[in-house]
Amino acid sequence: MHVVVDFDQCDANGLCVDAAPGVFELGEDDVLRVRAEHPAPALWPAAENAARSCPKLAITLRDDA
Ligand code: SF4
Predict the structure, then answer these.
(1) For the whole prediction, is pTM greater than 0.90?
(2) What is the largest distance, in Å, between two alpha-carbon atoms of the chain?
(3) Which one of 3, 11, 44, 49 has the lowest number of neighbouring Cβ atoms within 10 Å?
(4) Does residue 49 have its Cβ closer than 6 Å to ligand 1?
(5) How far is the CA of 6 from the centre of ligand 1 (A)?
(6) Among 13, 30, 31, 61, which residue has the most ligand 1 atoms within 8 Å of its CB, making it the best to mutate?
(7) What is the fold, at CATH topology level, of the domain defined by 2-62?
(8) Is the minimum distance from the CB of 3 to ligand 1 under 6 angstroms?
């Protein structure tokens, strides 16, 4: 899995961080960062929840293959 965020759409509301703290984090500057661009399979369900929870539809999950 490859986690891609459209930062032009992201408003840093942190919902994806709540859903998948192993994949996303908010920096002290309130800018979203992707902690795991290629998360381990154990984190995929959380990453999928995060993508669904993003009100800006800013998260895309791609197959690595
Ligand atoms: S849920 Fe979407 S808009 Fe909110 S911080 Fe995450 S990527 Fe950005």
Answers:
(1) yes
(2) 34
(3) 11
(4) no
(5) 9
(6) 13
(7) Alpha-Beta Plaits (3.30.70)
(8) no
Residue pair 20/42 in contact by the 8 Å Cβ criterion: no
Which atom in ligand 1 lies closest to the alpha carbon of residue 26?
Answer: 5
Contact assessment for residue 23 and residue 47, using Cβ atoms and an 8 Å cutoff: yes
The per-residue pLDDT string of the chain (65 residues; one tens digit each, 9 = 90 and over) reads 999 999 999 999 999 999 999 999 999 999 999 999 999 999 999 999 999 999 999 999 999 86
Structural domain boundaries in the chain: 2-62
Reduce the DSSP state of residue 33 to 3 states and report it: strand
